[in-house]
Amino acid sequence: MADDTDKLLERTSRDWQSMIRITHDFFHGWRKTVAETLGEEKAMEMELRFYERIGEGTGRMFADRGGRPEDVEKLVFSLVRASEVMGEKARMAADGKDWLLIHEACPWPDSFRAHGVPHTCQASCDRWFQTTARSVSPKLRVVTESALPAGGATCTRRFVSAA
């Protein structure tokens, strides 16, 4: 019985890793089509709008699952979990009244680089996190302190509440 469970877990993990790669390919196929059809500038504009929509949805999901605007710790925890599900290595840390979302490893910079747009993932993630925070509370803002695609050791974002 344990062997069957181990095999199932191993297969599920392999399948999930494949799904992550498929998702990257799907996104980059969409982006490349926009760039070829409308140009790189329009592709970047649409990419940012895409991540804005994702942030709006993330903010709605947080609220729908009982998240409160003042619970920044819970929001950052939720974003850590979302990041882990997407194959990223992330953690959170308190820094005074602020919360840090720290990505120590992420497949997206390599994915963007492999598809010929090496530095755009930072702008996309910035848009996602900023829109998510704004969707949860207009008093919450996100500041990017370091980024992997810019040569940083981590992608670190500070969640600051003006409340």
Structure report:
62% of the residues lie in helices and 18% in strands. It is an alpha+beta fold and 163 residues long. The protein has a single domain, classed as Muramoyl-pentapeptide Carboxypeptidase, domain 2. The longest helix has 37 residues, at 2-38. The termini are far apart.
- Tally of helical segments: 5
Helix content: 55-70%
Could you list the spans in which at least 5 consecutive residues all have pLDDT below 50?
A: none
Q: What does the largest sheet look like?
A: 4 strands, antiparallel
Instruction: Please compute the radius of gyration using only Cα atoms.
Output: 17 Å
- Indicate the overall shape: globular
- Strand sequence of the main sheet, in spatial order? 1-2-4-3
CATH topology annotation: Muramoyl-pentapeptide Carboxypeptidase, domain 2
Order of helices and strands: HHHEEHHEE
| N-C termini distance | 53 Å
Strand residue content: 15-25%
User: Mean pLDDT score, rounded?
Assistant: 94
Please identify the structural class as seen in this structure: alpha+beta
